[in-house]
Amino acid sequence: MSVKGKPIHALDLPPVEKLPPETQKYFDLCVEKLGFVPNVLAAYTFNIAKLNGFTGMYNDLMLGPSGLSKLEREMIAVVVSSINHCFYCLTAHGAAVRQLSGDPTLGEVLVMNYRAADFSPRQKAMLDFAVKITEAAHKIEEPDRQALRDVGFSDADIWDIASVAGFFNMSNRISNAVDKQPNIEYHSQNR
Predict the structure, then answer these.
(1) Which CATH number does the domain 16-63 belong to among 3.40.1010.10, 1.20.5.810, 3.30.43.10, 3.30.40.10?
(2) What's the confidence (pLDDT) of residue 103?
(3) Which of 8, 23, 104, 135 could be disulfide-bonded to 39 (CB atoms 3.0-4.6 Å)?
(4) Cα–Cα distance between 47 and 17 in angstroms, integer?
(5) What is the per-residue pLDDT across 51-97, written as a single tens digit (0 to 9) for each?
């Protein structure tokens, strides 16, 4: 598998010979909704158990019920990915931010310096917390959590902010380590 002649990642991990029916159905749904199978999923086709683990966690965190909107979760993904310099996630989740917000520049602001955006105090506190998780999670204390409560987040929301930030820190590190390449389609979406 490749993107414009470049492999979707740097490792020699051939996909399974035949995808299980439930995986094929999931990929077919991706093609129906997105027009393609995201490379982050295709990259995992060498090991269906790892693919299922990744998609299960991703779908729960990013699409499941939460006090955070889908846009807020994508904003966290982009800000965390910016700190980690993750080309794959910046490209894919920047496109999602553009799509969900209807704002073609918001993804770029989040990539370059989220503090330059005109966010509500709630969103700014959320992103500041995600940044602290990424840069110095061991320094988070009760006042950091209280700052989120003070702008209206529940403890369940704080868990979700931490979980989304944690997931993207993990995913960014894997993507960077294996040189995962984003689908070319993401670059032009919602501009």
Answers:
(1) 1.20.5.810
(2) 93
(3) 8
(4) 11
(5) 999 999 999 999 999 999 999 999 999 999 999 999 999 999 999 99
Task: For the full predicted model, state whether its pTM sits above 0.85.
Answer: yes
Contact between 79 and 114 (Cβ < 8 Å): yes
- What topology does CATH give the domain 70-188? AhpD-like (1.20.1290)
* Residue ranges covered by each domain of the chain: 16-63, 70-188
Of 176, 16, 33, nearest in space to 91 by CA = 176
Is the model's pLDDT at 16 over the cut of 80?
A: yes
Contact indicator for 191, 105 with CB cutoff of 8 Å: no
Q: Is 169 helix (H, G, I), strand (E, B) or coil?
A: helix
Q: At what angle do helices 155-178 and 48-63 cross, to 10 degrees?
A: 140
How many helices (H) and strands (E) the chain has is answered by 9, 2
Q: How many residues does the chain have?
A: 191
Integer Cα distance of 135 and 133 in angstroms: 6
